[in-house]
Amino acid sequence: MSINIVTLVGRVGTDPDIKYFESGSVKCRLTLAVNRRTRNNDKPDWFTLELWDKTAEVAGNYVRKGSLIGVKGSLKFDTWSDRQTGVNRSTPVIRVDQLELLGSKQDRDGGGGDFAPENF
After folding, report:
1. Closest by alpha carbon to 74, among 47, 101, 36?
2. pLDDT digits over 19-57, tens only?
3. What does the UniProt keyword field contain (predicted)?
4. Through-space distance between the first and last CA atoms of the chain, rounded to whole angstroms
5. 55, 63, 82, 113: most buried, per Cβ within 10 A?
6. What pTM was estimated for this model as a whole?
């Protein structure tokens, strides 16, 4: 038996990068900052997320830089050969299967305003 499940909650670091393919598929890539608690302060770990099809469209329509989201998916590695050196390279990517929009509607719309839970 093997398990490859990743669950993360954090803030989006970039606006979604959406690509549409002739096949009808939709791909979205974005970054996610997740705070890792240390003794002195919180430092973010950065993850690259890859979303496909309906989930990608939802991200493209509702997620913006700074949005609070939760994701569930699996870890994969994108591999390529460096054009200059020919060395094989790889980078970890989270292939998202499930996306949860956790912030308020104002967060998703990028709206400011005076409403914040700490104000009440």
Report:
1. 47
2. 999 999 999 999 999 998 877 877 899 999 999 999 999
3. DNA-binding
4. 49
5. 63
6. 0.79
